[in-house]
Amino acid sequence: MKKILLSFFVALAGFAAHAQETTLAPDQNPRYAESRDRYIKAQDQLLVNMNTTVQQTYKAYDWYEAKQERKLQRYNDRRERRLLRAQYGNFYSPYDNNYYSPYRYAPGFRRNGWRRGW
Amino acid sequence: MKSIFLYATAAILLVTTACSRKVTRIDPVDTPDISGKWNNTDSRLTAEELTSQILTEKWIGDYVQAKGKKPVVIVGMVTNKSHEHIEAETFMKDLERSFITSSKIGLVQSGKKREELRAEKADQQTNASVSTMKKFGLENGADFILQGSINSIVDAYKRKKTVTYQVNLELTNIETNEVVWIGEKKIAKNVKN
């Protein structure tokens, strides 16, 4: 008898808990649990940017800044060309190409494979 | 020998003093415009404007009348869609501070700080004494979320440039999705290089 009563109360408590979970507030959407479960799964990803500034900046065209950038680019290009010319000779000149360059690459010749003059 | 030493010392002193960097303290309110980009003054003006708007508009009164308690706000994400790197935290913190000092709006922690709080609470579950251990599931739920965006418009030709920043903050009721307040601050600048 005791066992029957105990199992009855346990079943009653389980039913009450389930009923409490499924009881809807006035005007509440009956399918609210679908949305709740979906967002519970995704909440970590969705809340990762809370209280932060997400930087989605763009590059605005500024005539003066663009001019300065072009100037800097020209300077860097010239510098790079100068360095390459010093290392490999003048590739751009028909009279000072790699073959005739005094600094041309000649593997196995003198030190580091680089030779000076003929 | 003495004169050589004297001259050397004088020369070293001259060189070091001539090359030394000079730093002076200035009032944060009087931050000068140097490059024309977003600076401390813009942040301060935005904070002042938005603070006065959010604390004086009628959404607080409406909520208190309906619910009988002060609204609780959580700070969400601010998206910077302008052409410059702008950290919104500088003016958002001023705004949050005004919520607390005015006592009109409650504020709950969000983001990484909230994660840290929960981690500390989790740590207490196994390390703190039972009488001092803080329980899970008793956090104060926010009624509203504050979200924002920063936009800019740039018009430049030759050495002249005009930049307009628009900062918008929106306060939305979390339960109903109703937007109860939108704050706006526009800052326009004329820059000549």
Which class of secondary structure composition applies to the elements of chain A? mainly alpha
Mean pLDDT of chain A: 77
Largest sheet of chain A: none
End-to-end distance of chain B, in Å?
54 Å
Q: Kindly, what is the distance between the CA atoms of the first and last residues of chain A, rounded to a whole number of angstroms?
A: 114 Å
Low-confidence stretches of chain B: none
Taken in chain order, the helices and strands of chain A follow as: HHEH
Number of DSSP E strands of chain A: 1
Task: Count every helix of chain B, treating DSSP H or I runs of 4 or more residues as helices.
Answer: 5
Q: What radius of gyration of chain B results from the CA coordinates?
A: 25 Å
How many domains make up the coordinates of chain B?
1
The CATH class assignment of chain B is Alpha Beta
Give helix and strand order of chain B, one letter per element, not per position: HHHEHEHEEE
As a percent range, the share of helical residues of chain B equals: 25-40%
CATH topology of chain B: Rossmann fold
Portion in beta strands of chain B: 25-35%
* Second CATH tier, the architecture of chain B: 3-Layer(aba) Sandwich
What is the overall silhouette of chain A? rod-shaped
Globally, the shape of chain B reads flat
Give an account of the 3D structure:
The complex is a heterodimer of chains A (118) and B (193). Chain A is an all-alpha fold. Chain A has a domain at 68-113. Helix content of chain A is 53%, strand content 3%. Chain A has helices at residues 2-22, 32-46, 63-88; one strand spanning 53-55. The mean pLDDT of chain A is 77. Chain B is α/β, with parallel strands linked by helices and 193 residues long. Chain B has a single domain (36-192), classed as Rossmann fold (3-Layer(aba) Sandwich), CATH 3.40.50. Helices cover 39% and strands 28% of the residues of chain B. Chain B is built from five helices and five strands. Chain B has a five-stranded mixed sheet with strand order 2-1-3-4-5, covered by helices on one side. In chain B, α4 links the parallel β1 (72-80) and β2. In chain B, α2 (40-56) packs parallel to α4 (89-102). The A-B interface holds A 47, 49-65 and B 74-89, 92, 110-114, 150, 152, 154, 156-159, 161, 193.
